[in-house]
């Protein structure tokens, strides 16, 4: 039975968790949250409480929080399930309101970015000059433009996604292009781009994340075969599983992040933490899937890279810019080569970037907070060298001897790694005629050394 005492409002729901009737102020809250009477309960926390009470047949009571657009409402709600699962009686015993906090500009921008990432159908990493470094997409509708961008790394993104109604000479400042409508070849849908800068305090952006978003839903099918990326046929994982699993995993991560950041409305801290754990697990699975796909590529008989002339100094700055936000979350400073430095090498641009992102990402993961990571360049005759050094826990001689082994994690667990990143990175380095090594000592950090053929003609 429901407790006796001061009652502010009563309500009733049916077996489909629709609110059949409700007293004020609950009825008004239902409507301000976008619901109707009768209609599905529109207050997320109240809906969850009613569903649990009905399904399990138990009386439940707890505080419920809702955001109606202008105020934050907190109420104590008791829910009593009816016999045979025919719905619930709802009693509200306490009702408090407070003005909704005014969202500052930075919070609004973070919210917009999270929404764009959630609905984006193509994402790309750009360098400081807005040239394409990498690209991934979902759906058959974007195959052609994605393939064009993948074969055109180093070119400005507007060469592939032309802005509408812009007569100014390219390239434009990124702020003028953020939010611009663009033309996607072969698509009749309306599209826009969001440009998210990788900021460094006191400096211009070190790069950008480009998100392609449509405000009209897709009517096409998701590409579930023939992957866009590989030049070689990947077998079971890369060719058959990765394209099928990548999209649902990405959606799980995006939805969990939306819940964690409370984009859908107020949520107790415990549930936000659960959503964060789901997002973390999804990212781990997605990373493992990508690692397994890359593993199949590097172990394919006859695998080779596509060498080109690259500047390791520029690549190092771009990789540092891409990972700078993650480093800042731990108070870590990445010291990249000065823009005046240059170190020409002969290697495949995309593969060198992949190696550097892995090495810098590992350094961020295992370095203490408020530490530093250094990217250093050395010219050694016919070799061009880049060093990634950190202030992490360091490695013993035994650990150094096996750190490049396949699936080797040095006994670490729960760190989000697959044990494949360094194995793949060394395999790629050797496929480009170079090598990847480590120098370290316990308590003295680690230095990962990437050697590549120098560009003798530069």
UniProtKB/TrEMBL annotation:
<feature type="domain" description="Histidine kinase">
    <location>
        <begin position="240"/>
        <end position="456"/>
    </location>
</feature>
<dbReference type="InterPro" id="IPR050736">
    <property type="entry name" value="Sensor_HK_Regulatory"/>
</dbReference>
<dbReference type="InterPro" id="IPR036890">
    <property type="entry name" value="HATPase_C_sf"/>
</dbReference>
<dbReference type="Pfam" id="PF02518">
    <property type="entry name" value="HATPase_c"/>
</dbReference>
<dbReference type="GO" id="GO:0000155">
    <property type="term" value="F:phosphorelay sensor kinase activity"/>
</dbReference>
<dbReference type="InterPro" id="IPR036097">
    <property type="entry name" value="HisK_dim/P_sf"/>
</dbReference>
<keyword id="KW-0902">Two-component regulatory system</keyword>
<protein>
    <recommendedName>
        <fullName>histidine kinase</fullName>
        <ecNumber>2.7.13.3</ecNumber>
    </recommendedName>
</protein>
<dbReference type="InterPro" id="IPR004358">
    <property type="entry name" value="Sig_transdc_His_kin-like_C"/>
</dbReference>
<keyword id="KW-0808">Transferase</keyword>
<dbReference type="InterPro" id="IPR003594">
    <property type="entry name" value="HATPase_dom"/>
</dbReference>
<keyword id="KW-0418">Kinase</keyword>
<dbReference type="InterPro" id="IPR005467">
    <property type="entry name" value="His_kinase_dom"/>
</dbReference>
């Amino acid at each position: 039975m429901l407790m006796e005492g001061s009652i502010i409002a009563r309500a009733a729901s049916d077996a489909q968790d629709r609110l059949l009737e409700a007293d004020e102020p609950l009825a008004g809250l239902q409507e301000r949250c976008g619901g109707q009477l009768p209609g599905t309960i529109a207050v997320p926390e109240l809906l969850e409480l009613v569903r649990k009470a009905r399904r399990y047949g138990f009386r439940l009571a707890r505080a419920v929080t809702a955001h109606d657009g202008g105020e934050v409402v907190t109420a104590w709600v008791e829910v009593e399930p009816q016999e045979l699962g025919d719905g619930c009686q709802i009693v509200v015993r306490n009702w408090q309101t407070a003005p909704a906090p005014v969202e500052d500009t930075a919070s609004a921008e973070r919210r917009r970015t999270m929404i764009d990432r959630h609905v984006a159908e193509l994402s790309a990493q750009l360098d400081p000059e807005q040239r394409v470094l990498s690209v991934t997409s979902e759906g058959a509708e974007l195959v052609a433009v994605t393939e064009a961008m993948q074969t055109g790394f180093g070119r400005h993104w507007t060469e592939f996604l032309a802005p509408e109604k812009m007569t100014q000479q390219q390239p434009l400042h990124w702020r003028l292009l953020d939010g611009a409508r663009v033309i996607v070849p072969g698509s009749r849908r309306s599209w826009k781009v969001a440009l998210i800068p990788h900021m460094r305090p006191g400096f211009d952006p070190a790069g950008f994340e480009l998100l392609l978003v449509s405000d009209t839903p897709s009517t096409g099918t998701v590409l579930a075969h023939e992957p866009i990326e590989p030049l070689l046929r990947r077998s079971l994982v890369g060719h058959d599983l990765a394209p099928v699993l990548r999209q649902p995993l990405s959606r799980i991560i995006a939805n969990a992040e939306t819940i964690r950041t409370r984009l859908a409305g107020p949520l107790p801290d415990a549930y936000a933490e659960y959503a964060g754990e789901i997002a973390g697990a999804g990212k781990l699975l997605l990373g493992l899937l990508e690692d397994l796909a890359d593993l199949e590529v590097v172990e394919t008989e006859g695998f080779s890279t596509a060498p080109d002339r690259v500047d390791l100094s520029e690549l190092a700055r771009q990789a540092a810019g891409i990972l700078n936000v993650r480093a800042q979350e731990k108070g870590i400073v990445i010291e990249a080569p000065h823009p005046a430095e240059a170190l020409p090498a002969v290697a495949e641009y995309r593969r060198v970037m992949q190696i550097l992102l892995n090495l810098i990402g590992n350094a961020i993961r295992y370095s203490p907070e408020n530490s530093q990571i250094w990217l250093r360049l050395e010219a050694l005759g016919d070799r061009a060298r880049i060093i990634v050094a950190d202030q992490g826990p360091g490695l013993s001689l035994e650990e150094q001897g096996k750190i490049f082994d396949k699936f080797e994690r040095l006994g670490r667990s729960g760190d989000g790694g697959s044990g494949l990143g360094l194995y793949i990175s060394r395999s790629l380095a050797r496929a480009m005629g170079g090598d990847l090594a480590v120098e370290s000592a316990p308590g003295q950090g680690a230095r990962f050394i990437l050697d590549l053929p120098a560009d003798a003609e530069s």
